[in-house]
Design a protein that fits this description.
The complex is a heterotrimer.
Chain A lengths: L11 H17 L14 E6 L4 H13 L3 E6 L3 H5 L3 H9 L5 E6 L4 H8 L3 E7 L5 H15 L6 E5 L6 H12 L3 E5 L9 H8 L2 E3 L2 H4 L5 E4 L15 H8 L3 H4 L8 E2 L12 H4 L6 H20 L5
Parallel strand pairs in A: 1-2, 1-3, 3-4, 5-6, 5-8, 6-7, 8-9
Helix pairs in contact in A: 1-13, 2-13, 6-7, 6-13
Chain B lengths: L2 E8 L3 E7 L5 E2 L7 E4 L4 E4 L1 E6 L12 H10 L2 E6 L10 H14 L3 E4 L15 H6 L6 E2 L9 H10 L6 E4 L13 E2 L2 H6 L3 E2 L2 H17 L3 E3 L5 H12 L4 E5 L27 H13 L4 E2 L8 H4 L16 H8 L5 H16 L16 E11 L18 E11 L2 E5 L2 E2 L1
Parallel strand pairs in B: 1-4, 1-5, 6-7, 7-8, 9-10, 10-13, 11-12, 13-14, 14-15
Antiparallel strand pairs in B: 1-2, 2-3, 5-16, 16-17, 17-18, 18-19
Chain C lengths: L17 E4 L1 H19 L5 E6 L3 H16 L4 E5 L30 E9 L3 H13 L4 E9 L11 E5 L8 E4 L1 H4 L3 E4 L1
Parallel strand pairs in C: 2-3, 2-4, 4-5, 5-6
Antiparallel strand pairs in C: 1-8, 7-8
Helix pairs in contact in C: 1-2
The chains are: A alpha/beta, B alpha/beta, C alpha/beta.
């Protein structure tokens, strides 16, 4: 495994191996000496062209606990505004002898393109609306810890699918692990061509959240951006909440102990009621510690061994 | 210098010799003191005419100049190109149009016919000085805001009416900006949904084409549709022609063959406006070119400096090179076409649409000697680095194409000899 | 992705496989090691046996059982994975890690006995010492191995050895244990 750009890069076995390594890494979080020497001498650059405190610090800690040298570069607005091409920007950074490049970029496909230009191992930390593979891995890992095997389990993904890289990575990861996935969104927030895509990939679509929730073994709520209202995607926040939000009443529709995930940051009151976010079955905080373990596992598998 | 071209197969039909006098005209008697070109086995066509080229000068001479663009055109067998107006500054005055025309004459390799902007600065609101551009030495008759759509129906109507006075035509880049905005870059469909790329739905083109043919009917004007890319647009144009509406249409070589699947790797080489479409649309535009619904092939040659393409896909510049490969692509793709058909869509019709009286003429005495001699069955593998263009954004790199331009004659002058600039 | 589980090779058909220890020899050696540990440590209090993956783990458990049988009380036993501390990570495809499971009492102020099947270059034990340093502060660390085959590359020695087995570098020493391989024997080929 040279890069992690998309969940598609991983076989089912590789996903399970990452989960096993992540379980070991999870233990490191509880130790007094939170250090493993596995990536000593490796240099990892977090190159974020888009703001993100949470993902970036997760990758930063992951690298440091593995003894790598980690550098954060906030490249927001850099290349396009200064007229430097994206290729020049990343090559300049990697010319310093970088082993691993963790990249987040507002353009879909940016991580794929960058991986063709640089020698370093590239980890996609989120590219536009395309993919966010470590998020999907940590979501599936968290759910697997709660539900046991995901084979045959029904996961509902609800929210703005069109603009969500979390959805795209998750639907691939969950179906790869044998889960049954139903995605729920208003028609304007379903990606184009989803009919053909869902038929080919083996997941279902629905506009009716109330029909799907009672059958779900796990629920994943996606963030909805208020800016979408100006794009005529939906008329108002309250209409969205009534039609597609995980309200307090809808919590009662769920089977007992169904875990609720959210990639964060949450719009409390919009796509998820405060009661749902704070419910005992919410695994939102656990997702954060899982995220750290998964990212340590990913960095270890990409950078510890000899060049793939 | 006079020329004798021996043994050429004229339009692939009859073999004959062609005589060119000192004045650059085809004549019926062998001129004295002539250079001989042996065209045995070669097909002779009237020099190709491109309705849609971007020469980038003034403003982006790092990507292409009128000289280098003319060189690429000549290599591709062209003797005339229409240079689009979206330069920096925009060609929206008589002075700027004349300047482009003069630079074309200085280069002296092809007729560079400037296209004038429809609206001032391509702003879409006020008409540019269409009449003055027409009266200038550049004699502009084709107007286009290409790159952008004349999206305001009222402005489009006025432009269509106004150019009637001097037989002008508006070439519309059909893209409704409210359905496909400036970030739209991938045919809206399953692939764009999966890849997370902003979609460019076919209807954004079709609604404008439909509107414009109705406006043309209402105003009794001529309208030309640039780079038709969808089956729906073809249906509209076909219907409009059946109604007797004066509409003409062009298609690019890339839309005749390349499909949206090429975007899977996010390679900006394949980013173009309008975007590459699925196979159904490719099939429809090919059938339309064959049955005459689409009148011409136009390259939309769009050179870009490397650094403008080496961005994330959504940020990269739109456009592909096309002048040097167009004939090869058409010959390879349109396998039912005779050479006469190819001449019709790549020379005769474009010359007529653009009002270029000296181009696209019969290869017979009395016509100006704009001739391209083609090896009809040679196979060439496209090498993007072996190009007269300053740019390298070539989507055909590594592909095999049938036919090769061997010699190009422009007004009696040999501009390309044995496939290289003379 | 990670290399497959490091399997000790079956001896090849053109090399004679010589049995050095059979099942009873192994049992006697482990019994002797158990008694040595108890003698040296003056009992089993504060003793923690940590087996090194893979075959050190069942060996540690067997020693713990034997000690418990003598002392009449259970002995703390755990597993130690040293993958992350190896000095040869960079030269191989990424290795899969195993579990590190310390017994409930931890290792601080305990006498930790590392248990492994074969002592060879000593690099695994060096990695184990580094791993222990990040996990706590034992009062002492000892090493018990079933086989010492020589050819040390680092200044490391075992405190308790089942069998000294001088060997040529080209020879392969294979340890099979019923918990892992289905039978008990040590062969050289």
């Amino acid at each position: 495994m040279k890069h992690l750009l998309s969940i598609d890069d991983l076989s089912t076995d590789e996903v399970q191996q990452l989960f096993e390594t992540a379980a070991d890494m999870h233990d490191v979080q509880r130790r007094e000496v939170k250090k493993l020497p596995a990536l000593r001498g490796r240099t990892v650059v977090n190159m974020f062209f888009e703001d993100s405190t949470r993902t970036r610090s997760s990758f930063e800690i992951a690298g440091k606990w593995l003894s790598a040298d980690v550098i954060n570069i906030s490249a927001k607005g850099s290349s396009t505004s200064k007229g430097e091409s994206l290729r020049d920007t990343v090559l300049t950074v990697c010319a310093m002898g970088v082993d691993g490049l963790v990249i987040r970029h507002p353009a879909s496909g940016a991580a794929v393109q960058v991986s063709e230009w640089v020698d370093a191992a590239v980890v996609n930390a989120g590219d536009g609306t395309h993919e966010h593979p470590t998020q999907a891995l940590l979501d599936a890992y968290t759910l697997q810890r709660h539900l046991g095997s995901l084979e045959g389990r029904h996961v509902a993904i609800i929210g703005d699918l069109t603009h969500s890289r979390v959805f795209r990575s998750n639907v691939q990861c969950l179906t790869k692990l044998g889960a049954r996935v139903t995605v729920v969104a208003p028609p304007t927030l379903m990606p184009s061509g989803i009919g053909a895509w869902s038929a080919a990939a083996g997941f279902e679509t629905s506009y009716d959240i109330d029909a799907v929730l009672p059958e779900a073994d796990a629920v994943m709520m996606l963030r909805v951006q208020r800016e979408r209202m100006s794009g005529a995607f939906f008329p108002s926040a309250r209409e969205y909440t009534v039609g597609y939000g995980l309200t307090r009443n809808r919590l009662a529709l769920l089977k007992p102990d169904v875990p609720i995930c959210h990639p964060g940051p949450m719009n409390r009151g919009l796509e998820i009621a405060a009661d749902a976010a704070d419910a005992a079955q919410s695994v939102v905080l656990e997702q954060v510690s899982s995220g750290l373990a998964i990212r340590m596992a990913v960095l270890y598998h990409l950078l510890a061994g000899e060049e793939a | 210098m006079a020329l004798v071209i021996t043994g050429a197969s004229l339009l692939g039909e009859t073999t004959a010799d062609l005589y060119v006098d000192d004045a650059g005209m085809l004549v019926d008697e062998q001129p004295a003191g002539a250079e001989t070109i042996d065209a045995d086995g070669l097909v002779a066509l009237p020099g190709l005419v491109d309705l849609h080229t971007h020469l980038r000068e003034p403003g982006r001479e790092d990507a292409e100049t009128i000289l280098t663009g003319s060189q690429a055109a000549a290599i591709g067998g062209y003797t005339a190109v229409l240079a689009m107006a979206n330069t920096t500054p925009v060609t929206d005055t008589a002075e700027s149009a004349t300047r482009v025309w003069e630079l074309g004459r200085e280069a002296g390799l092809v007729d560079v016919q400037p296209v004038g902007a429809v609206t001032r600065g391509l702003g879409g609101e006020e008409l540019a000085e269409l009449g003055l551009m027409n009266r200038s030495r550049a004699g502009v008759t084709v107007f286009s805001d290409d790159g952008k759509c004349v999206h305001d129906a009222r402005v489009m109507r006025r432009a269509l009416e106004y150019v009637k006075a001097f037989g002008g035509v508006v070439s519309q880049h059909a893209q409704d900006p409210t359905l496909a905005g400036s970030s739209a870059c991938c045919h809206e469909g399953e692939l764009s949904g999966r890849l997370g790329l902003p979609g460019w739905p076919g209807i954004a083109e079709e609604v404008i084409v439909a509107r414009d043919v109705m406006l043309a009917r209402h105003t009794g004007s001529r309208v030309h549709v640039a780079h038709v890319s969808t089956a729906g647009s073809v249906e509209v144009v076909r219907w409009a022609k059946a109604q007797g509406i004066d509409v003409t249409a062009e298609v690019t070589p890339h839309h005749l063959l390349l499909t949206t699947d090429l975007l899977t790797g996010y390679d900006p080489t394949f980013k173009v406006n309008p975007p590459l479409r699925p196979q159904e649309d490719v099939d429809a535009v090919r059938a339309a070119l064959a049955d005459g619904t689409i009148d011409a092939v136009a390259t939309d040659h769009a050179p870009h400096a490397r650094h403008d393409k080496e961005h994330a896909f959504v940020d990269a510049a739109f456009g592909m090179l096309g002048l040097e490969t167009a004939l090869g692509v058409v010959r390879t793709v349109m396998d039912d076409f005779t050479w006469a058909d190819i001449a019709r869509v790549m020379s005769v019709n474009p010359a007529r649409i653009a009002g270029l009286g000296s181009q696209g003429q019969a290869l017979a005495p009395g016509s100006p000697a704009h001739v391209v001699l083609v090896d009809p069955d040679a196979t060439t593998t496209v090498d993007r680095d072996a190009s007269a263009s300053l740019s390298r954004n070539n989507p055909w790199h590594g592909r095999s194409l049938t036919s090769r331009v061997v010699h190009t004659v422009y007004g009696g002058r040999v501009t390309v000899r044995d496939g290289a600039l003379a | 992705m990670p290399a497959p589980e490091e399997a000790l090779p079956e001896s090849t058909s053109d090399r004679a496989d010589r049995t050095v220890l059979d099942a009873r020899d192994i049992s006697r050696a482990l019994t002797r090691i158990s008694h040595e540990l108890l003698e040296r440590n003056k009992g089993a209090t504060d003793l923690v046996l940590l087996g090194l993956h893979t075959r050190g783990v069942p060996l540690a458990r067997r020693i713990a059982e034997k000690i418990a049988a003598v002392e009449g009380a259970p002995v703390a036993v755990g597993e130690l994975d040293v993958t992350m501390y190896r000095d040869d990570l960079r030269s191989q495809p990424t290795r899969r890690a195993h579990k590190t499971a310390l017994p409930p009492g931890g290792i601080d102020k305990k006498v930790v006995v590392l248990v492994d099947d074969v002592l060879f270059s000593g690099r695994t034990i060096r990695a184990a010492l580094d791993a222990l340093a990040d996990l706590g502060r034992p009062s002492a660390v000892r090493l018990a191995v079933l086989v010492d085959r020589g050819h040390r590359e680092l200044p490391i020695r075992a405190d308790h050895v089942g069998k000294n087995l001088p060997s040529a570098l080209a020879e392969r020493v294979s340890v099979r244990l019923s918990e892992v391989d289905g039978s008990d024997e040590v062969t050289i080929s």
